[in-house]
Amino acid sequence: MALLTPLFAFLYHLPQVYKWLLKPYYIASLFMSIAFLLVRKTPGICEHLSTQREDGNSCDFDWREVEILMFLSAIVMMKNRRAITIEQHVGNIILFCKVANVILFFRLDIRLGLLYLTLCIVFLMTCKPPLYMGPEYIKYFSDKTIDDELEKDNRVTWIVEFFANWSPECQSFASVYADLSLKYNCAGLKFGKVDIGRYSEVAKKYRVSTSPLSKQLPSLVLFQGGKEVMRRPQVDKKGRAVSWTFTEENIIREFNLNELYQSKKLGKTKGEKFERPNEPVFSPVPEEEEPEAETITAMDTESKKDK
């Protein structure tokens, strides 16, 4: 099942994969991912390589190389079980293919290993994955505009993503968040984003860590009247994010988007939890019922007799 799931996802998104592979970043990543295969299988090059095969065939994988490839393939399948987009599937495959190439090249020849590792570092510093450029209803904030926008209208509920462009998780989540904005954006429910990798003061104010170890990127926060109502992922006492998967289903359920969208679209405010976050959620105390008219008349009669 762990093998079939990414396979079906790949086939379903095959037309999109073709478009991605035509971009320079993925073309270069593809060649780097199969670099060891090309070196080991290319005639005229493979004959000069060392091998541990008993038959001395240096143009084929030895048993140790096959073992390394099988082990990393298992890791890729386990990692892809938590992938939620095709970008994450492809990114995981590329990442672990490069790791396998580093190990195999160093095992083959330390000079080839150093050369390949240098190429990986240069590629990482100079080439970035293409950003999501599809349709969306999202307002991008800066450090000067976020507070004003969140506090401008108390009737508007904001869902804001705190992200960083260098984060692979944020890049993979971009298409999911864009789809949510297309489905649920309305006059009373809006979606926003702020790059805390660029605006560090915003990260400090809203207590979102940009450290990769904290695993707080991306963070989704729901605001009402400029005040935070809830966020995902939650953060423990040590400042680390509680494990949470950013799937569309999880976000809809946790943020109650269906009910929130209907209430905002139809203008319903009575009994809505997010409309009045400062009010107590307890049931109101029932008012005392007024005494019936007959009881009041009897009491007046008794009072007159006493007099």
Automatic annotation (TrEMBL):
Residues 268-307 are annotated as: Disordered. InterPro entries: Thioredoxin-like_sf, Thioredoxin_domain, TMX2, TMX2_thioredoxin_dom. The keyword Transmembrane applies. The lineage of its organism: Eukaryota, Metazoa, Chordata, Craniata, Vertebrata. GO terms for molecular function: disulfide oxidoreductase activity. CDD domains: TMX2 (cd02962). The chain crosses the membrane at residues 20-39, 114-134. It is found in: Mitochondrion membrane. GO terms for cellular component: mitochondrial membrane. Residues 141-230 form the Thioredoxin domain. GO terms for biological process: brain development. It comes from Onychostoma macrolepis. Residues 269-278 have a biased composition (Basic and acidic residues). It is a single-pass type I membrane protein. Keywords: Membrane, Signal, Transmembrane, Transmembrane helix. This is Thioredoxin domain-containing protein.
